[in-house]
Amino acid sequence: MTTSNQALRQWVEATATLTKPDRIHWCDGSDAEYGELVQLMLRRGDLLPLNAETYPDCYLHRSDPTDVARVEHLTFVCTPDRAEAGPNNHWLAPAEARTRMDGLFEGCMRGRTLYVIPYCMGPIESPYARCGVEITDSPYVVANMKLMTRMGRAALQRIEREGRFVRGLHSTGDLNPERRFIMHFPHELLIQSIGSGYGGNALLGKKCHALRIASWQARQEGWLAEHMLILELESPAGEKHYLAAAFPSACGKTNLAMLIPPASMPGWKVRTLGDDIAWLHFDAAGVLRAINPESGYFGVVPGTNAKTNRNAFEMIRHDTIFTNVGLNARNEPWWEDKDKEQPVTDWRGRPWTPGSGPAAHPNARFTVAAHQNASYSPLADDPAGVPISAIIFGGRRRELAPLVYQARDWRHGVLVGAAVASETTAAATGAVGVTRRDPMAMKPFCGYNFADYWGHWLSIDDGSRQLPKVFHVNWFRQGQDGRFLWPGFGDNLRVLRWIVDRCAGRVGARETPIGYLPQPTDLDQQGLALDPAVLDSLLAVDAVSWRREMQDIAAYFAEFGDRVPAGLLAEHRRVVAALG
Ligand code: SAT
Ligand code: MN
């Protein structure tokens, strides 16, 4: 197979000249090709078979122990002007980055196969979808891209029709962290990644293309590429709303997108359109429509069980790639909080004994095609996307942020998003549990200066459009004893219900300096045994703490100097004044 697109052909040839692979394989995306790759990886030991009776067509991949999460300190945005990348990104001059990467790519595919993966982010027929081509020497990456994206022949045909695509060059290199870099060249629509085989570092369609490069393109073209799940919420009366929600990695986007209503809320239905990324465009009528550029899930495994996320628990019982989980005595994948059993092997393949720590890596992942999810919405394949009623921001915050509040208007919503903070998780290397600012949950993913990004968000409100309402949620409030105050998971539907009631103008709210909060009685509490005092503290707004928070936000904005949009600063001043 090859292609009629000359630019693509030449890029593949030039890459082969540089990296010197033994073979070149153009991926057609067929099931047969996936099967052959699996066989190859089983022979090489890159994949281990799992119990074929209880976990048919499931495999375990063990990463190099130094290569188990995104590496933000090795991820760069390479724009000619440093200020364009902003203080939120690591920056290198494009020429310097190219020289460094060329040196590392030189001869790196000797003895290996170079795979060419044409892929389409979004439904193939969607005007909102965009194509890319990833070149990689990792069959694991090819197999993951097959589960996560629409890849192969149909994507290549679209590329040949349109002539446009994002280029991504990836090699696992020698997996030495000293020689690991993930570079983005937004002006050239180019990504280069070497030295890692892990998810967000290596599956270039995901964070590198669909967020970093796409956010940059979206700004030029007037749309939004966001780190958001998309879900459909249907009430017992059949009223449907589509919600998009941005939380940082490993803060429960997958669980919320697959939520199972509590027994005490019969008739409510949640369907999943996406669990990680949303591309948002206005249609001709001024309605904001979302597509999920992905077609699979790369979700956190630990903590997944029939109670926390039954849909995920069941969808990963077949045709799933597990990365960095442990094993039980029946050669089934095992992870913390899966069940009452004990593992026998940890994620590195070492014998596990009580006291040897977690058997699964805290950032262990499953890769699975989206249609295996029982709550999958076929609208995820609709080229027109879905109309968004509400945008929800959230983070993991022990204190301060109430369970839910609503911004007064779009501009306030942009402030609420820009001020998102969250405790860090195992999804990235580095300290876990440290609170940091993570605007719109895009801190690791915005491909350009955050100040310009906030300006872009503000510019969305041009007076002619039907803008969604904006909310903030926090499922992670803890009491003095460290216990979570809110039960979370299925009960989060109670909060979503208030959100759609607000969107439909059916319910009132308590106006506070930080926005609109529910009256406790306006939250559906049927079947929820929550102490009223606990609910009061979940819905409390402590002016003293919030004044401190607003100072902290101002100090954060100041890092971006005079590029910060005046409208955002004015909104900040308004809230400070309201806090008295
Ligand atoms: O590693 S990924 O970026 O794919 C997952 C995540 O951190 O959200
Ligand atoms: Mn994510």
Mean pLDDT: 97
Number of helices: 16
Class by helix and strand content?
A: alpha/beta
Tell me the name of the CATH homologous superfamily of one domain: Phosphoenolpyruvate Carboxykinase, domain 1
Q: What is the annotated CATH architecture of one domain?
A: 3-Layer(aba) Sandwich
Query: Given the C-alpha coordinates, what overall shape results?
Result: globular
How far is the N terminus from the C terminus? 68 Å
> What fraction of the residues are assigned to beta strands by DSSP?
15-25%
Taking all Cα atoms into account, the compactness measure Rg is 23 Å
**CATH class membership of one domain:** Alpha Beta
**What small molecules does the structure contain?**
sulfoacetic acid, manganese (II) ion
**Low-pLDDT segments, ≥5 res:** none
CATH topology of one domain: Phosphoenolpyruvate Carboxykinase, domain 1
Find the count of extended strands (DSSP E, 2+ residues): 30
Tell me the helix content. 25-40%
Largest sheet: 9 strands, mixed
Description of the molecule:
The chain has 580 residues and is of the alpha/beta class. Among the domains are: 6-48 and 72-221, 3-Layer(aba) Sandwich (Phosphoenolpyruvate Carboxykinase, domain 1); 389-579, Phosphoenolpyruvate Carboxykinase, domain 3 (Alpha-Beta Complex). It has 16 helices and 30 strands. Strands 1, 4, 5, 6, 7, 8, 9, 10 and 11 form a nine-stranded mixed beta sheet that branches. The radius of gyration is 23 Å and the shape is globular. The protein starts with 5 loop residues before the first helix and ends with a helix. The model has no long low-confidence stretch (mean pLDDT 97). The structure holds sulfoacetic acid and manganese (II) ion (MN). Residues 70, 199-200, 206-207, 249, 298, 427 line the site of sulfoacetic acid. The site of sulfoacetic acid has 8 residues, from helix 7 and helix 8.
